[in-house]
Model the fold of this input.
Amino acid sequence: MLARLTMIASGATPAARKGRFPSDEALELRALERASALAASLRRADRVWTSPALAARQTAEALGLDATVEPLLAEQDFARWAGKSFEAVQAEDPEGMAAWLSDPGAAPHGGESLAAVARRGAALMDRLAGESGHTIAVTHAVPIRAAMVHVLGAPLSSVWKIDIEPLSLTEFRGDGRRWVLHASGVIAAN
Done:
């Protein structure tokens, strides 16, 4: 049973451009244009899922995809850090920031830990391992990074060493027993 999973990072939002922790906001205009350009290069899919976040749903729509919301694809919940800049959080809560960056089980922001995001992603991939065909999943950088380290068997702390650009594609292939990372970093033309 052959399965293919294409994870697409949602387009950029104003918060992302300003180096802020994600909040549920709309895409910037340029991201909508870039997603439309990417649409023609996507292969047919048997299933199309999207994160519940507005940016992911708008990305799927701009890609011309009729997507179903899949809660397991949600962005990490940053709770009280959402919408704040990295620098502001570092100044307000340096111990919390240090814990968050060094301990995948930490959630000093009152939201979701990286380990919890990874468990969601692993559950999704385990479910898909038994499905044949191609699935497109429009999601966010943290869930994509977590899926990559899951497939590679790398430590969860490795997510901070992976850069996921807005609208980049990450491809996985599965044979029903295991997943492999097939490609990563494909980006729509500017």
About this structure: The mean pLDDT is 93.
